[in-house]
Amino acid sequence: MVERVLVVDDDTTVRDVVRRYLEHAGYEVELAGDGETALQLMAAHEPDIVVLDLMLPGIDGIEVCRRIRQRGSTPVVMLTALGEEEDRIAGLQIGADDYVTKPFSPRELALRVSSVLRRASRAYEPRVVRDGDLELDVAAHTATLDGMPLQLTTREFDLLAFFIGNAGKAFGRAELLERVWGWQFGDQSTVTVHVRRLREKIEKDPAKPRRLSTVWGVGYRYDRSSL
């Protein structure tokens, strides 16, 4: 089945270039020039992934990403300008899966889209991982805490599954980028943002984490619950 990509950008030239590269890579592409149109297209036919510019007229990209996350776990790759670090971090905090900085190489964007889709559809061996009241069904790609569903993005799920599978070991941010998401380069603040988001979802007191600890001078370590 051909995977569908929704490209949301108010720049006609950017939309056209991205469309041509993605179609050449074998994807079916839909285009939207503003946030409202993007949300209407998503409601009519859910895409497999969204390429989303943050700077949009009307409903901006941050709000579009927030509404996408309220709907489900459709992967989102953000397009951000070079100086929009705060917006980029805000996008990651509300659940974007990746980002590409403008000006960008359309070929790189196509590779990022492929990488995010591959992570989202990765075939896992059927198994359930438990840590006290926290349970991950790795095959179904679902998680629960105290019996209640956890809304995790693909990237958050992969990071949490890696931590639980390597409990008691400390990992640096660069190592996590490579071992969890296959990046040999990238913004290490991405790891920091996703660790913070995981703490907000799995810790009773995110300010005093008991599962996902900071190891000063190294990175992070997952400690199994005493429950």
TrEMBL record:
Residues 126-224 form the OmpR/PhoB-type domain. Residues 4-117 form the Response regulatory domain. InterPro entries: CheY-like_superfamily, OmpR/PhoB-type_DNA-bd, Sig_transdc_resp-reg_receiver, WalR-like, WH-like_DNA-bd_sf. Keywords: DNA-binding, Phosphoprotein, Transcription, Transcription regulation, Two-component regulatory system. One of its GO terms (biological process) is regulation of DNA-templated transcription. The keyword Iron does not apply. GO terms for molecular function: phosphorelay response regulator activity; transcription cis-regulatory region binding. Signal peptide: none annotated. The modification 4-aspartylphosphate is found at residue 53. Pfam families: Response_reg, Trans_reg_C. It comes from the Bacteria. GO terms for cellular component: cytosol; protein-DNA complex. Residues 126-224 bind DNA. CDD domains: REC_OmpR, trans_reg_C. This is Chemotaxis protein CheY. It comes from Lentzea aerocolonigenes.
